[in-house]
Design brief:
226 residues, alpha/beta, eight-stranded mixed β-sheet, two-stranded antiparallel sheet, globular
Length: 226
């Protein structure tokens, strides 16, 4: 049986898919059978006349993944809105037990599964069931994607406190889109994020970097020993 981690972020478009792909690639390059899994996707692209979830399409384009698109995703909605609304608009019922069963299958087959959430931790997936409930159901530690932009301290601290209030294990933070050189605010944010959340920074991804370069600073290997 493999290990699993839930990747979420302080906001939508913070870079969860990019960071997930980076972690998968890093482990694959070490000979570890790691894959991404996107249980619920809102927003699609057209690939060879097929409607594909945009995040899964990104995975397939940039990673060594042998299975078909649907292997890495359970629910795909064309409407790019919160899953609870997209499912209503498209008349599709989200069954969390189906997601749980799919995750267990992946966990049994692969060494590491990175489960990428939709939006942030408070996003509703359906009535009376949200992302925080899915994390609890899957019983996975969380990797939180954040940034150094203005407002990040507030957003990151609120997110970590919300996770802690639900007794969710936070593995650490990934800082995405870090400029070089950093200005004084960004340097200070880097220090304050660790200080105020009480969680380690697992990795830093430079701004406008080429995808999958050795310049990226990762501490991924500790994921396998925690």
């Amino acid at each position: 049986m493999g290990k699993g981690y839930f990747v979420t972020g302080i906001d939508t478009n913070i870079g969860k898919t990019y960071v997930t792909a980076q972690m998968v690639d890093c482990l694959q390059n070490k000979g570890i059978d790691a894959i991404p899994y996107k249980p619920i996707q809102s927003g699609v692209v057209d690939i060879n006349n097929r409607v594909i979830g945009e995040d899964v399409a990104f995975y397939k384009e940039n990673l060594e993944l042998i299975e078909d698109y649907q292997y890495y995703n359970t629910y795909t909605f064309e409407t790019p809105v919160s899953p609870h609304l997209a499912s209503k608009l498209e008349n599709v019922f989200i069954d969390e037990q189906v997601i749980l069963e799919k995750y267990k299958q992946l966990e049994n087959k692969h060494d590491v599964v990175f489960v990428e959430g939709a939006g942030g931790v408070a996003v509703p997936l359906k009535e009376n069931f949200g992302t925080i409930d899915l994390i609890k159901l899957l019983n996975l530690p969380v990797i939180l994607v954040t940034s150094l932009k203005l407002g990040t301290i507030n957003h990151t601290v609120l997110t970590t406190e919300y996770l802690k209030s639900h007794k969710i294990n936070i593995l650490g933070l990934f800082i995405n889109n870090v400029p070089s050189p950093m200005n004084e605010m960004e340097k200070d944010n880097l220090v304050m994020l660790e200080k105020l959340t009480g969680h380690d920074i697992l990795g830093v991804i430079p701004k406008q970097s080429v995808f999958f370069t050795e310049d990226h600073i990762f501490e991924i290997q500790q994921l396998l020993t925690n």
